[in-house]
């Protein structure tokens, strides 16, 4: 599903690229700052992490806030702020839940095509793990970690100040986890790699 979303959005970028370049060169008027409020769905893709066992990390739906600063009409930097809670299971073992705080900074390139403003971006995130519940084991210790972010999206202008937003992100993220079973401590590298779909509203300043 995420491949379909990204393919459709990239196709959209190419279709409007010629018009975007013409519009961009015809005017240098733009807002330096904008902010968005989104509702996002965070879909982890953990895969096999523990001796071939399937790790299940739950999907989460949460609010998100971001701020974007434009260096030029086309080039901008976006800081994304949000936090999510995920339940973790391995086979029939409940590993409780953990909260993730992954502030993400992306460098973006924006196109212009009438009221549509598609963009692509890439950057880094630093994920902080907190609020751990151990579930059926004695203890769970998650290590904070850096990851990479890839992004594509589109804004649609409602007027000079307000706009709607669709945003897709893929975070390449893993963490080292010490699982204390009570009998031994098992070090495990857990892939999270969440795909994030967001819709929301924004304002230019």
From TrEMBL:
Its cellular-component GO annotations read: outer membrane
Any GO BP: transmembrane transport
Q: Which UniProt keywords are listed?
A: Signal
The answer on whether this UniProt entry bears the keyword Secreted reads: no
Show which residues constitute the signal peptide: 1-20
- UniProt key word Signal: yes
List the InterPro entries: OMP/PagP_B-barrel, OMPW
Q: What is this protein called?
A: OmpW family protein
What is the species of this protein? Xanthomarina gelatinilytica
């Amino acid at each position: 599903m995420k491949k379909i979303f990204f393919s459709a959005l990239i196709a959209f970028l190419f279709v409007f690229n010629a018009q975007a370049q013409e519009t961009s060169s015809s005017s240098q008027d733009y807002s330096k700052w904008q902010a968005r409020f989104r509702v996002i769905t965070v879909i982890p893709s953990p895969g096999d992490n523990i001796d071939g066992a399937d790790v299940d990390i739950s999907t989460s739906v949460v609010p998100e806030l971001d701020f974007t600063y434009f260096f030029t009409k086309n080039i901008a930097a976006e800081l994304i702020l949000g936090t999510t809670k995920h339940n973790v299971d391995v086979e029939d073992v409940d590993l409780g839940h953990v909260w993730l705080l992954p502030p993400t900074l992306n460098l973006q390139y924006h196109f212009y095509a009438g009221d549509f403003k598609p963009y692509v971006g890439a950057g880094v995130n630093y994920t902080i793990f907190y609020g751990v519940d151990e579930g059926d084991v004695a203890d769970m210790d998650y290590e904070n970690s850096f990851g990479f972010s890839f992004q594509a999206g589109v804004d649609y202008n409602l007027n000079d100040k307000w706009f709607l937003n669709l945003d897709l992100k893929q975070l390449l993220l893993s963490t080292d986890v010490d699982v204390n079973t009570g009998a031994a401590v098992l070090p495990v590298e857990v892939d999270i790699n969440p795909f994030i779909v967001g819709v929301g509203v924004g304002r230019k300043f």
